[in-house]
Specification:
binds pyridoxal-5'-phosphate; globular; single chain; alpha/beta; Aspartate Aminotransferase, domain 2; seven-stranded mixed beta sheet; three-stranded antiparallel beta sheet; 2 domains
Length: 450
Amino acid sequence: MRKNYKELLEKDKMYIWHPYTQMKDYENDYHILIKSAKKFKLYDSENRYYYDTISSWWCNILGHNIKEINAAIIQQLENFEHTLFAGFTNEQAIELAEKLIKLVNSDEIDKVFFSDNGSTAVEVALKMSCQYWSNYGKPEKTKFIYLENSYHGDTIGTMSVSGTAQFFKYYKKICVENYSIPSPYCYRCNSSKSCKYQCLEPLKKILNDNHNKISGLIIEPLVQCAGGMIVYPAEYLNKLYEIIKYYEIHLILDEIAVGFGRTGKMFAFHYSDAIPDFICLSKAITNGTLPLGVTLTTNQIYDAFYDDYSKNKTFFHGHTFTGNPLSAAAANATIDLLISNNLIEKSQAQIKYLNNEIYSRFNNFQYIGDIRNIGFIAAFEIVKDKSAKEKFDSSLRIGRRIYFEGLKNNLILRPLDNIIYLFLPITITKRDIDIILNKLEVVLKNVISS
Ligand SMILES: Cc1ncc(COP(=O)(O)O)c(C=O)c1O
């Protein structure tokens, strides 16, 4: 049997180009063929286990292989797998739309548009926002405001509103130019001790000078995830919202990574007073079982598209797998579990525990400059020199070394540059948190203290 797996891994190298991977590294690296998954662990072809400490790219929220979700998918599969979604509909999608509108619990949100991943959910919001203004008689409003260190996807449209420069430097030339504002990166902010949200001043200036051209502002509520798990105060979002509300531009909230309880509330924007015009969802919506993207919006937006066909106001957008009933069944089952078992409320004790433990164990760690935490997200910014906040030389590839040491210690620590993070399911137990943190201590000591 083992020989088979070795052959498979050889074929993988022969045929597959992996995402976000330097394939020259990969050729010589130890890599992993996953055979099964249960609760918080993945098991590989050598019967080793790994704590899924990054929730399989931030999708898994309840643990792996949840029987109720599997059963819902199978039951739907026995009825039918997929149909077109224009002129046709299905029970699962209708049920899900109704559930989501109740779940976001924002007075203004009334309509749901389905797609099939996070990037497409954002593309839909950008296109709807821009066409809204055209339909409304203001076609010059085509630009967006985004934050430095933000990430909203890998398509050309979403890269055009993302501020993670290191990912996009080769593609910026084919992107559309928009307006960027500073990131609320408190750890690396010079005025953080006398914070009066000076980082929002550029937003005021951009809006003052250009609001006639601006369609909307897109933001990841409370945590800029791919940009380095930058956790920022809800007050920042409130202030930002007050500023943009005055200029009547759309607020697009990208809850793709943080939705469904990860931050300790159902949605991260529930910590704030912001009222969104669009909410983008994906990832944990199906507990990571099947791909699904969702863009929620208001009746006000919807009404600007609603007219005689000859007026040419139709939203011309759709994806093959829009409204896919298997994905919708998985999402319905995921949401049912979250709600009927009160999982978010029950997870508060673990959140508190995780918060206490990370600070008490790692605060005095020589090479950890900053610890950031909200809900089940915990990030550790690794620095060479704490007082100067100086990073290690990139040629040392500290993150990569931590990743491999993590694997040896049953953890999946996929760093974001010099930031190591945990992105845990909300059903994680205190016992598992302890095991993970014990292992993390060993990994960090082995790599950076050596
Ligand atoms: C906040 C955020 N938005 C959008 C995306 C893009 O989602 P996808 O990879 O499904 O296209 C991601 C992916 O990590 C994300 O974290």
